[in-house]
Amino acid sequence: MHDPGSRSDCIMNQVTHYVAFKEHCVKCGKQEPKANGVLIFDEVKVACQLLWNSRSNALMGLAMTSKDQTSLNDIYKLLKDSDDSKQTSYVLQFLWWDLTSEYDIVGPYFTSSSTVDAKFVMSCVFETIRLFQFHKLKTSLVVCDGASSNISAIKACHGFHGAYSINEELNDKYMVEPWMINPFNPPQKLFWLICPSHQLKNMINALFSSKEGGTKEFRRGDGVSFGWQTITDLYKQELARVDQGCTRMVPRLKEAHCLRDAWTKLNVHPAKIMQQEQVLTELYAYIHQTPPPPPKMLLQHLKL
Fold this sequence. Notes:
two-stranded antiparallel ribbon; globular
């Protein structure tokens, strides 16, 4: 465990192992890794029950009232208004992954006592790129999720800020390239990429909002509704196969993936399962076997 920040010693040991790995690849007759990789970072919220001091970088204990679990008073600490301690609320973690060998190095982490903003993200990203470049590890790609602070940081790196314009003219000032010159390794380009897995998770969560009593409704151009009910029916069909002693066509689909509690919505893995080939194949077969409900306008016409 190392201290937060872009300290050289936080990755020095891992870099030593990476150099040995490169030499081993050459001895085995394999292509030598080029030390050119992608930098991945993500924001993690610290559990509210944990008290972590951002200045001393030490765990202070668990947050609880004086009446709760009095037997644990030895790890209970009351934060007074006069106390200069700053509780860590968010941690920004970095990972460097070699594009030519799939070798990864756990990078530095940065703590914040408040919500992570674009300035904080920019400073951490460039400090980390500089750190890896110092150890002769080049960075060609930066991957992050589509959080507003990350998007703002990407825009700011191109010299822009604010909402994107809907103007499609060529002179639109917000039509920026998805890359910039790496300031620590010019003229190499540094590309930005929004994590596809997070985009997929957001799409699945939006589709889940179309459940019965949900906040969204999806309709085709001809007025036929579609949405989460199809996923639910697909899972019921899987249970019917099990009752009949047949093999499930989508063995990785679980009830929790259909009910989607708060943890499932945050987890990327269930969203990937929703996009696996077996699910898409079964959805295709289900849609063609089950006639879609008539458009709402037609239902209203029939009632009249």
